[in-house]
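[audit] Reproducing an earlier prediction to check determinism. Same input, same settings, fresh worker. If the tokens differ from the archived copy the diff job will pick it up downstream; this log only records the rerun itself.
[audit] input (84 residues):
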Amino acid sequence: MEAIREIVDLEKLSRIINIPENFKYTKVEIFVFPIEDKKQDIKKKFDPESFYGISHINDPEKDIRQMRGQLPKPKRLRLVKAPR
């Protein structure tokens, strides 16, 4: 992606965009990035029923204990002295 980077006088930039009065600088650095002119996807309405998570579980603590029990036990590590 290409971009344009310029240092411009704030006075010139204030003709294009609104600059707050408390912005006490004379020169600013601006970046211009291209954007694709696509139609934005229409956002779907959030449907909590279709959201899969732990909230549908009646007893989360029980299910968490069950999930933890399904994990394999970690192997014990053996310490080895480094060669000198």
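[audit] rerun output stored. Observation attached for the diff report: The helical segments are 10-13, 60-70.
[audit] end
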